[in-house]
Design brief:
heterodimer, A: 74 residues, mainly beta, Alpha-Beta Plaits, two-stranded antiparallel ribbon, 2 helices, B: 260 residues, alpha/beta, Rossmann fold, 11 helices, 17% strand
Chain lengths: 74, 260
Amino acid sequence: MAKFKGTVVVNTDCCKGCELCIEACPLKILGMSHHCNSKGYHYVELKDEDACIGCASCGYVCPDACLTIYKVKL
Amino acid sequence: MTAKEIIKPENLVYTKTKVMTDVPMHYCPGCSHGVIHKLIAEAIEEMGIQEKTIGVAPVGCSVFAYNYLDVDFQEAAHGRAPAVATAIKRLQPDKCVFTYQGDGDLAAIGTAETIHTCNRGENIVIFFINNAIYGMTGGQMAPTTLEGMKTSTCPYGRNTDIYGFPLKISDLLAELDGTCYVTRQSVHKVGNIVKAKKAIKKALQNSMDGKGTSVVEFVSSCNSGWKMSPHKANLWMEENMFAKYPLGDLKDTEKKHYGQ
């Protein structure tokens, strides 16, 4: 059982779908959405909400600073 | 526990820094420039020097850096950012002055300005983004292009007999007496990003303390110019770029002052 629980909020308007966060995520729980944003890019979304530990790896590697990470200790 | 219960200001771990504006960046998806902009903004915020910092923007992909960082900015002619930064720092010595330049700007057209600024030991910071290519104009060969690397102007690979050898400009600058801190970093992994931020902070502090010129080189990827996906470009960079441009500090000292 994970000691931390986190979540990722994606600013879908500025995500360009580079997929760097998907590679950086240690748990591989991020994925591309089927929807597009106003610029026509598929944006990233959290696929498994329960598994996120809020490590913020995705946030660090995001070139467009569109990820906000929250974390609580259980 | 649902996501709604977690999303509270007191649980915030990471978000966009206030030193960055809300303008969407024009860079290609996965470009290293975004991460480096973010790191510089975070370093400025953490050091509390937003009001004291003046940046100098180059010509190249990062020409619009002034739109994204919420600090005072001056645009320079191609390659002349260190000369402009020299004037700013000499006229306002209490400010923290940095230039942000790519390899086409710093290592090609602006070689003379770069070398002489570093040789004079101006108390500025030079952020040098090295992606071994002219990204903005369509991926032409730059002085830093690796041996055998294919670009749009050397489609059979860089032949060193004709085009010369990759220019290791940071090693050259480390030889000069005016530089105090020369380091080579990258931003493709979380660990490297944390290290790069430390280097940025140290360089900005050196500028404030008047220790000499600090040069922070970022070995970065240009996935559009290299014709790869962002992730593959990072892997290619690890495999090929780091052999020619190894990461780490090249110099960490203080310039000798007159009469010392």
